[in-house]
Amino acid sequence: MALAAPDNVIGVHLDGGIGMPTEADVPAMSAEDRAQWADMQQWMTGGVDHHALLRAAPQTFALGWNDSPVALLAWMMQKFQEFAYLADRAEDVIERDHLLTNIALYWFTQTTGTSSWPMYDGLRDGGGFGWPTDQNLVPTGVYGGGSPLMRTLAERGNKITHWPSGNPGNHFVAMEEPAAHVADIRTFFAELR
User: Fold this and answer.
1) CA 162 to CA 184: how far, in whole Å?
2) Over the stretch 166-178, which tens digit does the pLDDT of each residue have?
3) CA-CA distance, 99 to 81, in Å (whole number)?
4) Do the Cβ atoms of 39 and 155 come closer than 8 Å?
5) Closest by alpha carbon to 20, among 7, 1, 39?
6) Which of 19, 42, 62, 191 qualifies as a FRET site for 121, CA 20 to 30 Å off?
7) Contact, 161 vs 141, CB < 8 A?
8) pLDDT tens across 99-154, in order?
9) Does residue 159 come out as left (phi exceeding 0), alpha (psi in the -120 to 50 range) or beta?
10) Among 189, 156, 148, 113, CA closest to 40
11) Cβ distance 13 to 163 under 8 Å?
12) What is the pLDDT of residues 62-109, one digit of tens each?
């Protein structure tokens, strides 16, 4: 919306960082940036690389997710367990009914496959997540943007006006930390009034 109709959008608030650095970014990095990059590589290589799986066979996974509620539940629970904030088990952070409601929404709308298409589109050619570009007309706020390196890269093509550090939560922040998430959205948009 910010690209299509910037005059009608007062701001864009995102939950996570705006993409990730790729190998193409490494030559221009400072020594400090390269240290951050090395830390990110360790983080990105842990767990199941779902990006590689989706890049290899996105429609195969989509058919399985849409065909079997057990397949969808297994996939989603693995993601909740892998990405949930400071928990050995997602259920320790997010109530079971909340998890099942979230998964049921994907199941009943048959949208699990299409929800993964942005990842596939950015990764299918072997690149990383594409950085949004030419979105300098609308202020952008990020709940948990990440390292200074990530901010530097995000500022290349975005008008970053809100990049707090220390916000609690992780990948599923809206479910894990709803009060903190809402507070951050309010803070960002209050600055734009």
Assistant:
1) 9
2) 888 877 888 888 9
3) 11
4) no
5) 39
6) 42
7) yes
8) 899 999 999 999 888 887 766 655 544 455 555 667 889 999 999 877 888 888 88
9) beta
10) 148
11) no
12) 888 888 899 999 988 888 877 765 445 445 567 888 889 999 999 999
Element housing 160 (H / E): strand 158-162
First to last CA, the chain: 19
Tokens 């050619």: give the residue: 125
> Cβ distance 189 to 10 under 8 Å?
yes
Q: Which two tokens stand for residue 23?
A: 């190998």
Residue with structure tokens 């400072």? 30
Cβ atoms of residues 41 and 23 within 8 Å:
no
- Those residues with Cβ within 8 angstroms of residue 188's Cβ, 6 or more apart along the chain or in another chain: 11, 13, 141, 161, 162
Output the CA–CA distances (angstroms, integers) from residue 41 to 23, 34, 58, 146, in the order listed: 11, 10, 23, 14
Are the beta carbons of 120 and 128 closer than 8 angstroms?
A: no
Please identify which residue in the block is written with the tokens 């909740």: 80
pTM score, whole prediction: 0.76
Residue 13 in contact with residue 188, Cβ under 8 Å? yes
How many Cβ atoms from other residues are within 10 Å of residue 133's Cβ? Answer: 10
Q: Are 164 and 143 in contact (CB under 8 A)?
A: yes
Cα 45 from chain centre: 16
Largest separation between any pair of C-alpha atoms in the chain? 49
